[in-house]
Amino acid sequence: MLSGRTPFYSSVNSEIYDNVLKAELDFSDPCFTPEAAALIERLLQSHPSQRLDDAEAIKAHPYFASVDWAALEAKKVPAPIQLDLTMSDVRYIKWKFTSEWATIPKPSDVTRDTVDMLISRFSNFAHVSDEAPPTSASGQAANGEEQREQDDTAATTTTPRGSRDVVGLWSIASVEMRTMDGKVVYPWGSKVRGVLAYFPDGQVSLQIAAQMRPCLRHHLAERATREELIEVCNSYMACFGTYETDAGANTIAHRLHGSLGPNLTNSTQKYTYKLEGSDKHGVEKLKLYSSFNELPGEHMAAQTILTWKRVSTF
């Protein structure tokens, strides 16, 4: 719980067994105080006679010296972290879990009364529209959330404009993937950070990062584990190059000169775009829609939708 991973972690079961039997515990992370390290060592002793397994002995350990056990049992100790959460807030859940598609197997022997009961109990769950989402930026809202957004901002207009309207600095608002039948998933989690810069001379720079990226156990990347390096790459993307817009077709093309993923270097990433704003405030929101692409192993196609909010103009 201190480091965010199990002490003998590996993605391969045989390596876990070897680690349990032979590996030394690594307490180099600053999260491990001397008291914490001593407690963990006692708890993980392989020989039962040396293992700390008595409740009173555990409570008396120096690591818990500041804990008032009587007050804790009486529920008089406030939680050390107060989470500010709403019903659908998943910001504290690791992004790799929120990026998974929700698949619900069809239950057997379900009556209409059962369905009505489930609907009444879980009415706050996100609704998936029966209609397919738009395949271009000129389409109408595909689901209730986007429609409500438009209703709440009646003065907002969607206008096809030229490259001068995309020029500026943008901050990421959301990254979502949407299937042809309207299912939506957030591959970077509910909260994401990122900037997109379109310069007047045709240069573009884009960066996106998961909000809660785990730290490496060591500051030097060459000492990171394979799993840590995979997590580093999967939780950050960056690229730069030039861009061209086609206002008539509402498309924008990123011609990448460099990318964190080297396979994308010298490639062209083409998006349909939609600009939203008002006559009073001008363009305030930019949406980039990728084409629908087959997802490996998923037997479905999905498009990525990047929503950006304007920070400033150049």
From TrEMBL:
PROSITE patterns: PROTEIN_KINASE_DOM
Annotated GO MF terms: ATP binding; cAMP-dependent protein kinase activity
One of the record's GO cellular component terms: cAMP-dependent protein kinase complex
Occurrences of domain Protein kinase (ranges): 1-64
InterPro entries documented for this protein: Kinase-like_dom_sf, Lipocalin-like, Prot_kinase_dom
Pfam family, one: Lipocalin_5
PANTHER family named in the record: CYCLIC NUCLEOTIDE-DEPENDENT PROTEIN KINASE, PROTEIN PHOSPHATASE 2C AND CYCLIC NUCLEOTIDE-BINDING_KINASE DOMAIN-CONTAINING PROTEIN
The protein's name: WGS project CAEQ00000000 data, annotated contig 1128
